Amino acid sequence: MPKNRNTFSSLGVLGRRLAGRAAHAGWRWMQRAGAVTAETPGGLRFGAIGDGTRLAFPQGTVFGEPWIRLGACCIIAEQVTLTAGMLPDLDLGPEPLLVLGDGVVLGRGSHVIADAPITIGNDVFCGPGVYITSTNHSYDDPHEPVGRQWPRSAPVEIGPGCWLGTGAVILPGARLGRNVVVAAGSVVRGEVPDHAVVAGAPARIVRRWEPESGWQPPLRTPAPRPVPEGVTSEQLRALAALEADGESSPAGV
């Protein structure tokens, strides 16, 4: 009997392993088949979707696609919400409401809610869980539930080259300049100038770059060394391995 129980136990483990492999293989197939691109838009009909742009599967809530324009080489991670208008199936007029430039990255679980126009410039990178909205609840009437009061809307502009950290919130009316860094968890409203770092809720400028004086306050960490031209990825991996071996050596050599 012990041998039989061991046999059945081994068969059960083998069955679970095979089922797990099949499930993972099936999920990878679904991720590939369910991704949205210019060549494979599925049921989504965006106003424009550039070459090389990919919306990972599974997508989040997406509606108002005719008024959404996506540039080239954008990366839209899983469960990202992209909406134009307050509700699906509205006629929003001749102009787009949500425009993403080329090379935009939206991290997993981010939301971009465009009831008024939202423009995101080229090469804007967003971490996971970023929330960008052009509409906010109002609370003018103290006797009416906030969720039942008509919201306020204002356009949002995010300049090229910005970095929005995990969990950042961009509120209606915000205008970010070029290469702005938004710290994780910050809540941004109003105008932010070029080459600024903002942090907090509400976000405030904590560092800024000027042509005459550079970064103020000065950066505390040295600038990363640029990769020399012609260096291959294999060479970089070999160099990283050598540096790791050197750090683990007691003599540091």
Automatic annotation (TrEMBL):
GO MF annotation list: acyltransferase activity
Keyword Acyltransferase attached: yes
A UniProt-annotated Pfam family: Hexapep
The entry's keywords: Acyltransferase, Repeat, Transferase
Chain coiled-coil ranges: none
Family: Belongs to the transferase hexapeptide repeat family.
Protein's UniProt name: Acyltransferase
